[in-house]
């Protein structure tokens, strides 16, 4: 008797499509991801809260598989005296809009400057984009990306590259660069944006030594965003119209390692 196996598409509660082959029961990469899940307007249902002892504050969430692997990586780092904490995880569109609007209106200064005095909208947006994403374009919307701190008490310092270049910060960063890939993590923003993918992009985020991504899942989101790019133009926040000029580059200009197959 001959048996034939079918790949059966299944719609998860998060809106992610997967296919499960009856021959091996393995889950395949998502076939499609809804636009609202890509842009943070709707969270996926597979978010889980980061345990208090692993976070710098309560209420932080990560995508379920990402959290499992972070726990494993954190436990391994502790064996050599390195503490890792989640400083920032999943962010909704509204969360990112609040960060963006505070900088756009001057409530939060950018590199010491009140941007409410900047009359050129293009210059204003590019200044904010040095480190902050436009709402709807942040990798934090996926729950796969998070900011790391090397101490519960150094939250502001952890968002400065220089803090990862000396002392405990350097120890933690060196360990991450040597070991994070074993758990599926990559650093999306390494080096300067013009050298990250030479000749491919003009714009991109500056280096963020604190920002890490769980590649087995985030890679699917990146590819899905790329496929739906024309339908995901910036909207719903200050300066969105101007942002359409370069939003694609800021989304796609990530370290090549984050785009390769796990």
Structural notes for this entry:
- The protein has helices at 35-38, 64-78, 93-104, 121-128, 155-158, 167-179, 193-196, 215-227, 240-243, 247-252; strands spanning 7-11, 17-21, 47-49, 61-63, 85-88, 145-149, 185-186, 211-214.
- With 262 residues, it is α+β, with helices and mostly antiparallel strands.
- It folds into two domains: 1-32, no CATH class; 33-258, Muramoyl-pentapeptide Carboxypeptidase, domain 2, CATH 3.30.1380.
- A four-stranded antiparallel β-sheet has the order 5-6-8-7. The chain has a two-stranded antiparallel sheet with strand order 1-2.
- A hairpin with a 5-residue loop joins strand 1 and strand 2 (17-21).
What is the number of domains? 2
CATH top level of the largest domain is: Alpha Beta
Structural class: alpha+beta
Compute the separation of the termini in Å: 37 Å
How would you summarize this macromolecular structure in one to three sentences?
With 262 residues, the chain is an alpha+beta fold. It folds into two domains: 1-32, no CATH class; 33-258, 2-Layer Sandwich (Muramoyl-pentapeptide Carboxypeptidase, domain 2).
Name its key features.
about 260 residues, alpha+beta, Muramoyl-pentapeptide Carboxypeptidase, domain 2, four-stranded antiparallel β-sheet, two-stranded antiparallel ribbon, about 30% helix, globular, disordered N terminus
List the helices and strands and how they pair.
Blueprint: E1 7-11, E2 17-21, H1 35-38, E3 47-49, E4 61-63, H2 64-78, E5 85-88, H3 93-104, H4 121-128, E6 145-149, H5 155-158, H6 167-179, E7 185-186, H7 193-196, E8 211-214, H8 215-227, H9 240-243, H10 247-252
